[in-house]
Amino acid sequence: MTILVIAEHEGGALKSATLNTVTAAAKIGGDIHVLVAGAGVAAIAAEAAKIAGIAKVLTAEAPALEHHLAEPLAALIVALAPGYTHILAPATTTGKNVAPRVAALLDVAQLSDITAVVSADTFVRPIYAGNALATVQSKDAIKIITVRGTGFEAAAASGGSATVEAVAPAADPGLSSFVGQQLSKSERPELTSARIIVSGGRGMGSGENFALIEAVADRLSAAVGASRAAVDAGFVPNDFQVGQTGKIVAPDLYVAVGISGAIQHLAGMKDSKVIVAINKDEEAPIFQVADYGLVADLFKALPELAQELDKK
Amino acid sequence: MKVLVAVKRVIDYNVKIRVKSDNSGVETANVKFSMNPFDEIAVEEAVRLKEAGKATEIVVVSLGPVAAQETIRTALAMGADRGVLVQTDDEVQPLAVAKALKALVDKEQPGLVILGKQAIDDDSNQTGQMLAALLGWSQGTFASKVELGDKATVTREVDGGLETVALKLPAVVTTDLRLNEPRYASLPNIMKAKKKPIDTVTPADLGVDTSPRLVTLKVEEPAKRKSGVKVADVAALVDKLKNEAKVI
Q1: Which CATH number is associated with domain A2-166?
Q2: pLDDT above 90 as % of chain A
């Protein structure tokens, strides 16, 4: 068996979701190759070659691949597919965009968002917002899979010494073009790889009030997240959203502030190791999953929490 | 331009999901069903395009049992013009859905297909991308804004923020939550929708083999979290996090 892992990278660096996907590949077993596609990716390929357990890194460079557009990236992966039994991508917005296109072009099914590997053809994936876990067997010759990062530990980023080989990019189908992007800039850790996350919900009342969340997050070196309600209300941008259709996170500590705990939000964070809920409504469903619940007015509790964390 | 919208009948998002005791699936008997929320957004977007004079006709398609007619009827009440039910009682997986939709697109020749980005039952997030692949069309997934001109300019919700792409038409667009807020159908429109036509075809009529490629071996409940404790104040909380959970 030979497995192709599609590397996720941004701003000239490999994204950590790639490492979790490599671990999923290792659980399937066999040789693991990593594809780094983009424009000017030599440094990223060198970084990928150091991942423990990788046999080979493939690089494909073309202007059309620079922004990970689904159409040219899928064409490339389809051209490489005959050499592989499994093709794995992180279940990020890039992976979710391209993998089904690849699967349909190969006339095979896709397994989305797997959280465990049972065997080379059988996998576990959450359905119904994680309220049920399905064990699913694929009958297809090539298995196209997206991997939920929280289901697998990150592979070691160093220790490997894979060979790097350039492959020809496929012809750009010329169907789409990149116009621009507005990426949230933050000094804080990224949501999906943060050790601690402090999230705010509708109870925050406004975007300005997220400063109270940030003050606590700063003291914990934490990422800041939000519920769908807070994003829909325009308090924070879409990339803050944790939940069934937003980001799936499983940090060591998740602090939910002013979040009632709709199942769609719980789906995105209930695998966190320790959950803290701060809410003035003691009946809020979030308390049913919280290890530590504090029934309090968040506008009082958050400044107190920041102060308490300053004490040594 | 004709717009085709795909809608799925799913267990209502407010229903508490129960896994069947024989682990064969989830309980669907006596459970409320409604239109997949992302598909409501897709229908709304199509109706807005028609109201803006950019779409001429909206055809809404659903795959599923006879009861999926109700889902189509909901879309017609929101403003779609006519429906097509691809009727089947079997489980239909995303690849087969995409093939059935492709057959209908070949027949209807729309300039744009809009789908929800994922169904909240199987959470696959595949059908739109697969349909675009089978048609050889461009795809704009997870859209939070769609502008139609010579091309479709689609703003997409991505992990790092927002990204804008220009798509050659015809194109497939899948909706994210912030694209629009779906309307409630008014009573007169619900009455009017009853007179709008719904065609019924079968997957076989479309030449599509729907046999599943993925076999679900079992469906289980996830492990429950142990119930936690309430703490009296912020100081007690910090103490627990430091000394009991040892996470800060």
Answers
A1: 3.40.50.620
A2: 97
- Helix B68-78 vs helix B37-51: crossing angle, to nearest 10: 30
Smallest CA–CA distance from A252 into chain B, residue = B247
Question: What would the mean pLDDT of A139-148 be, rounded to a whole number?
Answer: 97
What is the CATH number assigned to the segment(s) B2-223? 3.40.50.620
**B:179-208 residues touching chain A, CB 8 A cutoff:** none
Report whether pLDDT(B90) > 70: yes
- Closest residue, chain B, to A115 (C-alpha): B222
Nearest to B142 among A93, A237, A264 (CB): A93
Cβ distance A96 to B125 less than 8 Å, yes or no, reads yes
Q: Determine, for residues B130 and A104 on separate chains, whether the beta-carbon distance falls below 8 Å.
A: yes
Q: What is the pLDDT of residue A312?
A: 65
Of 2.60.40.790, 3.40.50.1220, 3.30.565.10, 1.10.10.10, the CATH number of A191-310 is 3.40.50.1220
pLDDT category of residue A185 using cuts at 50, 70 and 90: confident
The per-residue pLDDT for range B27-49, each reduced to its tens digit, is: 999 999 999 999 999 999 999 99
8 Å CB contact of B161 and A176 = no
Left (φ > 0), alpha (ψ -120 to 50) or beta: where does A100 sit?
Answer: alpha
Q: In 3D, which of B126, B120, B114 has the Cα closest to residue B174?
A: B114
